[in-house]
Design brief:
By secondary structure, the protein is an alpha+beta fold. It contains one helix and eleven strands; from the N terminus they run βββββββββββα. The protein folds into two domains: 9-114, Immunoglobulin-like (Sandwich); 115-172. Helix content is 33%, strand content 35%. The strands form three sheets. The protein has a six-stranded mixed sheet with strand order 2-11-10-5-6-7, with no helix packed on it. This is VSTM5 protein. It comes from Podilymbus podiceps (Pied-billed grebe). Its main location: membrane. Residues 13-112 form the Immunoglobulin domain.
Length: 173
């Protein structure tokens, strides 16, 4: 985006997805003819917070809330360390040239929790299914063995009854 006074701002990644405790880079690139003032604000459902403001090559004023979590870069970018759920929201950057012209940029940050309960549920479900399949395998093995024993007994009885019939026939004659 380029303003009439010659200030331009490029936001290469306007949407950032992060997980809790991750470090994120809110990357921008600005250019202007004179000295610029860069200001970052965070807007979320909890309110608006000024993160940092600095002049190129001059002072840096970091909000006390972000004091140990923000690193600034000459191109206007900032790095936010150890993000939490409260860091989700809109990040607005304003670049103001010394003559009063300015330009704006926005980055949307989504922060997700790694839900270990879901992983725990999957592990328990997997263990349960493995146990059920092991029981079914044992049951099928027992059924197979029982079937073989039953077939042997039936074959043995059948042979015995045939022999008796032959003997009876011989006696009657």
């Amino acid at each position: 985006l380029s303003a009439p006074g010659g200030v331009s701002l490029v936001v290469p990644q306007p949407n950032i997805n992060a997980t809790v405790a991750q470090n994120i880079l809110l990357s921008v690139e600005y250019s202007c003819r004179g000295i610029a003032t860069i200001e970052w604000k965070h807007v979320s459902s909890w309110g608006t917070t000024k993160i940092v403001e600095w002049k190129s090559g001059n002072y840096i004023n970091i909000s006390t809330v972000y004091k140990d979590r923000v690193t600034t870069f000459e191109n206007g970018s900032i790095q936010l360390l150890n993000v939490g759920m409260r860091d989700a929201g809109y990040y607005f950057i304003t670049v103001t040239e010394e003559y009063g012209t300015n330009t704006y940029g926005t980055i949307i940050v989504n922060v997700y929790e790694i839900i270990y309960e879901d992983l725990h549920f999957v592990a328990v479900l997997f263990a349960f299914l493995a146990a059920v399949s092991a029981i079914l395998i044992c049951f099928m093995w027992l059924c197979n063995k029982s079937l073989h024993l039953f077939q042997k007994k039936t074959t043995h009885k059948l042979t015995a009854s045939t022999t008796e019939e032959i003997e009876l026939e011989t006696i009657e004659c």
